[in-house]
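Milestone M4 deliverable, item 7.
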Amino acid sequence: MGGTGGMFNSYYTPERYKEMIRESREKTQDIEFETTVNEGINKLLAEYNNRNVDAISAHLEDVKSVLEKDIEGSVKLMFGGSVSKHTYVDGLSDVDTLVLVNKSELANLSPREVLSYFRSKLEGELRGVESIRVGDLAVTVQFSDDTILQLLPALRTPSGLRISEEKGRQWSSVIRPDSFAQRLTTVNDNFSRKVVPIIKLFKGINSGFPESLQLEGYHIESLAIEAFEGSPDLESRTPKAMLEHFVEQASRLVRTPIIDKTGQSLHVDDYLGGPDSEARIRVAYTLENVLRRMRKADEAGYSDEWLSTLGE
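Output delivered:
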């Protein structure tokens, strides 16, 4: 017994006690750092989720009334893009709206003619408009309250939707945006609905990049599916850990085109060119730099520095 007691006492020397106190202090600091960062992330998410639903609804009702005014039949508005997938971030995302024209005389026109009709009607009669721009696929309306609506004419078919082809000359083959939304929903559910909030945080980071380095919303959502679909055993599911995982995976995945399984295009990210294009490498380097800043703040325990990577 005496020998055992001596061994016990020799292990807990003054130096060992000091080391134990230091380890305990460091562990407490680590916990405080993680808690502070995750609290900051949740506060930012609350701000992102506080979008002005009433203003958007009022604008959409005005748009519907104006477009229907002088035609036979009716049009129907249906949320698309980030709103339908709940990845919308006020100030960072446009409100994509599908304008279903099947039950009106507009269904007999080409997509380009429908877009021209939209512009002519909205320019003359829509209230509170700052600007109206017509592209190949949609009419973009910016209001004085900074709400931005993208109006995409569409035809509903029994097997899916048809939108404008790239140059607006004819309607596209059938696309299934709902299949993409379902895939995203499945991934989100597998992570206790924590993936969609991470997409919103990533969009916030993305908005702070120079315009030439910013990724499109649909591309970001596709990257999230790829990043999390194959990682069901992610060790920690705190917002901080999941965002670091997403940034790390995205910096790798962005180098290669992602096949578009909805039929809207060959790839979701054609705008960046082929594999390892100059544009892709620049974006990958930018994301790697964000990840380095996060990890450096991790090592130093600087919560403010880590949170600054979110672009706020």
